[in-house]
# Entry
Amino acid sequence: RHPHKFWRIGNCFSWPELVRMAVSLVVGIITVIGAVVFFGSFAVPTKTKRVVEANIDPTVFQCYFSVAIFLSSFLVLTYNKFYFTPLGLIGASLWVPASMLSLVAIKLVGISVAQPIWSGGTVIMSFLWGALAFGDPLSSVALSLLGIGILIVGIVGVSLVQRTSPVQEGPSEALPEYVPEAHVYTGSVNSTPGDIESAPVPDAQDLEEPDKAMLDHEKKGPPLALKRLVGILCALGVAVLNGSMMVPLRFVPKEHRGIGYIVSFGIGTLCVTPLLTLVLAIVRRKPIVLHFRAAVLPAAATGLCWNIGNFCSIYATLSPLGMTAGFPLTQVALLVSALWGALYYKEVKSKKRLLLLLLSSLVILGGAALLAIFGHKKKH
# Structure
């Protein structure tokens, strides 16, 4: 008989330990799937017909979005003790403007293009923070740099994918072939996220003359190329802020860096969002239109989806999959968002462009995987 209480396989693990590890692994796989589905789908409610027709200001939608984040954050208290740190306010002050920019990016270039760009950029930014600012040791400098290069190639590939129609905002079967002046971006490259406003809808006579309406659209609105540039710049701005969002978490005690931090972050979003919305409204000198009926349910769904994705991604990285496998697997969410935009909302109809989008998204995933594996050195 083995001298120990439990027979140990290979003198390493007992059967109870193996069962616990197996359960943890299964939980890790389930949470990875959850992160992929919910992070890949959280932006879908922002493109519902009701939201598009109301042309809701991104700052207003963000207010409802943040309330949903705040309320759903307290669900973790059903099995965790309450913990608050002011660092959650700092993290939220980075995430809230990033979220507002993401709403603008989605409106201008679509889910299928915007989310892969900011997902790849977020990985690069977080890696640079760890390697350059905090001096995290690297397993391989060469392979880490290769991973960054691959990510950049993938991001450039996605940015080259053009939407089928600059005015199409929902499922193609629900909209007419051309909707003149329904949603026009009236700002410039330096505009704030809220500079998306509704232009007057032409009367029936204009609708019977699409060529004239199209000509007026081109005269009044900025060129499509400028819209794409602003949308891509917004997505890159999201990447910079998202990649920096976890920096405050470095200074949180280790025992509270996981699920315990969610409540502090939720409180931070509720504090930062109204303040930023008010400042932007004063600067832009525009009244705040709440659009409660049109916005509250889609924003609640968006916030709940995002927070569930965030919850799952934390557990995925805390599971035996860890940062090496868990983190890159959660980035498959960008493929889900690309498919939502390309297949459901018909943002990309050309087979060549769809192929470019999917291949570029896979390239981004490959770069993220390289950085996750070789961008940090395991501690023994």
Q: What stands out?
A: The first strand starts at residue 8 and ends at 9.
